[in-house]
Amino acid sequence: SYVLTQPPSVSVAPGQTARVTCGGNKIGSEAVHWYQQKPGQAPVLVVYDDRDRPSGIPERFSGSNSGNTATLTISRVEGGDEADYYCQVWDDRSDVVVFGGGTKLTVL
Amino acid sequence: QVQLQESGPGLVKPSQTLSLTCTVSGGSISRGVYYWTWIRQHPGKGLEWIGFIYSSGSTYYNPSLKGRLTISVDTSKKQFSLNLNSVTAADTAVYYCARASSYNYYFDSWGQGTLVTVSS
Predict the structure, then answer these.
(1) What is the number of other CB atoms lying within 10 angstroms of the CB of residue B73?
(2) Which of B22, B105, B114 should we substitute to test contact with A (largest number of A Cβ atoms within 10 Å)?
């Protein structure tokens, strides 16, 4: 089955740019979605279809996807961005939803 | 703004059936553009897709749970349900219901989640 690989953790100072990667075989040909999950809360969709933002999500959140890597970029990081981030695709070869293992973003 | 709310027992005995219901408000469950989904998260772990159901009743299940799993929908009550039988401690998790776009299968609305513990 399709596997999505994320780094376990990413650290960034406030005001800097954080990049969370999601690796998968030819992931550039898939639609990738990203979720933010804060402790004790349900996940929230922050980017869908590689680069689109739901209403209410700040423009600081952006996405890209090419080759074997999709990236969630968070610009001008704030303390409130500290959370776990998950990437997700639909594997249409197996008809299953696949999540990455998650990345813990720490704001230093 | 659609809202989803899980309900069901927080404690289930081993070998019994875990049953949860998700109630949808603020939107239609029978409008055929969404998949109604169950996702779980083991303590301290990542997200695991369980399966989803279309308003017509067609289902997609995680192969690792197929055989123990049934997802059903009652459009008249605006509810969909999860039944997972023969549970073990490995099924202890927070269970979320969510709404998935039928276009690219992203989850744009989630319930708050409910912790289900499997223990005698």
Answers:
(1) 23
(2) B105
